[in-house]
């Protein structure tokens, strides 16, 4: 069975968008993966085709109705065991490990939220996994869904070949990628670091490892703290859960 993503959205015209070009687009055109979009509004039942309503308890904005969204989800394939995701800034942060799991399966059904949110009851009743692509708020889940699909598609067999496995390995090791250079040898007075043109593979590898570690320490202390602990004896570093800070 071909890997496929089914996207439930109020804006199906946003797809395939960037997923229709470059690597993902070529793989889509050649049938390596499939993309299906469903218009949530097609499941509206009233004569105004309304999909949202004001939040219970008051407050700004509109909330996506549970009954309309549940009908849209059930119309896809209620019995299937595909992962059901909903893109949301309050979801669990997407990781390369989760991307790899999703790429290894049949492909997810992805709900794109809009408005102030989605009625919690449909998230509970249809067991939707809330996924965030970062600590910032987009105007809807569509661009987040595209990011997730793109990250999965590049891991599918035959999409990127060797290229994917090398960058993938680097990030999956939990550290950031070392810097890359190519010709010209001199750019605006900046040469390529000598080691990289020395032909000494061991020194190149050591330089890259050192760069990777320095970058990760400086930019992502969170990742650095999570790197696999070297067992060096009873006093070896161990990961501690920071105590919650209390104000005052
Ligand atoms: N929808 C709006 N913001 C989002 C985010 N950061 N991640 C996933 N979905 C979103």
Ordered list of secondary-structure elements with their pairings:
Blueprint: E1 3-9, H1 22-29, E2 33-39, E3 52-53, E4 63-64, H2 66-77, E5 84-93, H3 96-104, E6 109-112, E7 117-118, H4 120-125, E8 129-132, H5 142-153, H6 162-172, E9 186-187, E10 190-191, H7 201-219, H8 221-226
Parallel strand pairs: 1-2, 1-6, 4-7, 5-6, 5-8
Antiparallel strand pairs: 3-4, 9-10
Helix pairs in contact: 3-5
GO cellular component, one term: cytosol
Domain tRNA methyltransferase TRMD/TRM10-type: 5-224
InterPro entries: Alpha/beta_knot_MTases (IPR029028), tRNA_m1G_MeTrfase_C_sf (IPR023148), tRNA_m1G_MeTrfase_TrmD (IPR002649), tRNA_m1G_MTases_N (IPR029026), tRNA_MeTrfase_TRMD/TRM10 (IPR016009)
Q: Could you explain the architecture of this structure?
A:
- With 248 residues, this protein is α/β, with parallel strands linked by helices.
- The protein folds into two domains: 3-153, Alpha/beta knot (3-Layer(aba) Sandwich); 168-227, tRNA(m1g37)methyltransferase, domain 2 (Trp Operon Repressor, Chain A).
- Helices cover 33% and strands 17% of the residues.
- It is built from eight helices and ten strands.
- It has helices spanning 22-29, 66-77, 96-104, 120-125, 142-153, 162-172, 201-219, 221-226; strands spanning 3-9, 33-39, 52-53, 63-64, 84-93, 109-112, 117-118, 129-132, 186-187, 190-191.
- The strands form three sheets. The chain has a five-stranded parallel β-sheet with strand order 2-1-6-5-8, with helices on both faces.
- Strand 1 (3-9), helix 1 (22-29) and strand 2 form a beta-alpha-beta unit.
- Helix 3 (96-104) packs across helix 5.
- The longest helix is centred in the last third of the chain and has 19 residues, at 201-219.
- The chain is elongated and about 70 Å long.
- Residues 236-248 have low confidence and may be disordered.
- Adenine is lined by residues 87-89, 113, 132-134, 136-138, 141, 144.
